[in-house]
Amino acid sequence: YLGECNTKNLWCFQAQRTQPPPEEEEDAEEEETEELGHVDTYAEYRPSKSTIGISHPDIVVETNTLSSVPPPDITYTLSIPETTITCGLLSALQLEAIIYACQQHEVILQNNQRAGFLIGDGAGVGKGRTVAGIILENYLRGRKKALWFSISNDLKFDAERDLKDIDAPYIPVLALNKIKYGDTATSEGVLFATYSALIGESQAGGQHRTRIKQILDWCKPDFDGVIIFDECHKAKNATSTKMGKAVLNLQNQLPRARVVYASATGASEPKNMIYMSRLGIWGEGTPFRAFDDFLHAIEKRGVGAMEIVAMDMKVSGMYIARQLSFSGVSFRIEEIGIDSDLKLVYNKAAKLWAEALQVFMRAADELGLVSRKSLWAQFWSSHQRFFKYLCIAAKVRCLVELAQKELEAGKCIVVGLQSTGESRTREVLDENDGHLDRFVSAAEGVFQSLVTKHFPSEKQRREKAPGTKRKRKPRGRQPKVSKHNVDSGGVINISDDSSSDSDGMETDSNSSPDSLLDNDDVI
Length: 523
What we know:
Blueprint: H1 2-18, H2 27-37, E1 42-44, E2 60-63, H3 64-67, H4 82-86, H5 92-104, E3 117-119, H6 127-140, E4 145-150, H7 156-165, E5 173-175, E6 189-194, E7 201-202, E8 209-210, H8 211-219, E9 226-230, H9 242-253, E10 258-262, H10 291-301, H11 303-316, E11 319-320, E12 323-324, H12 340-367, H13 373-408, H14 422-431, H15 442-454, E13 473-474, E14 494-495
GO molecular function, one term: histone binding
Keywords: Transcription, Transcription regulation
Family: Belongs to the SBNO family.
């Protein structure tokens, strides 16, 4: 239950702030401790220089250090339609970020590259809609092509939704993974791709083609449109990984592109900023000749230095970072009654596992296993996950009722799942060529996975080296039905399914249970 998890964190935070100092301390120390305990970490945020737009629907804050410095004066005039602004499709906060990003894009750095902008807004401030607004602004200014990189191809639908939300559904979003290598026919729109696509290549037809060349051919060398690096912390190992090098290479190949970095954890660690070459903090005409010099100087001075960097970036107009406030947040825990249907399912499940336990114990006895640690680690781990999924399923009906009640009250619902069952769903999709032919139960998947792992029906036996004990496992499909495991003579049919001497039911007693769950349905 998501609320419980979050509220524990909130409660801990409040407890630290209100904890009284020990009585035996001296008065001076007591006052100092009390004063430190009540210093606010965040300050309420309102645009200080931008005056357009309707205020954001929720309270937004920024860190005290950032709020102590002002952003630069605004010199840029937006082209976004008045109706988009007056109807509140973009809030005042989002419009402020768009203005500062476009204003920063007018600057040319000492190395003759166009300056970039970093959006460090947290969840709920609307980075996606801000990014869509930057694309729309440039589209209206005649820059019809844009690149949008993110961590998953599925986020293309989010990009389309964000553009539609700001009344710009006419800007097409093209998925790079759906376009053939070498095809650059599309003339305008947003080319959406993942970071991994930057290192994609093809040998089809005897020709070596790469995605990065395809992107560069589509953009043309004089490209001055927008490049969005969404969730850009994924490119943090820019010097060591092929993907990171590709991100830097793309920026160098298109010096006039308008680069936007978007990440909630953008400037948290200096080493993760290596791909942000367009901020102009290091390089030609700056105090730091190379990124390594900047990194050494900041890491030597700790967190305080990083805060100063963030403040300097805000003053220079290249960085903005806001997040939703937690003030006024409340929580409650709902108790869900168990109905007769659930009781029946739960009791049947308990019986199933009791029978499975008997079969596993019988099989272990028959094999004469001395060390059973790994076997029981896997058995009880599966048992625990099975009932976790059952408990999640039991909450669904009540959750839907609660959600409908809150929606009727005009509230927005966010559902946090402990597990989505995606792994099991993908397995079923793979088995049926991408179609679901039945309801997918994660609990059933856990049980089946455990059974098929230990009770293979058809496996080739393998001879062991002399002096080692042959590992054998009972045949059969379901452990709860003992007749499948025993022949007419009362002998359990066994076969070996291990691929190495360390597999199977008999493993080293020091082995970690975690290492034995690779084939299970782990989310």
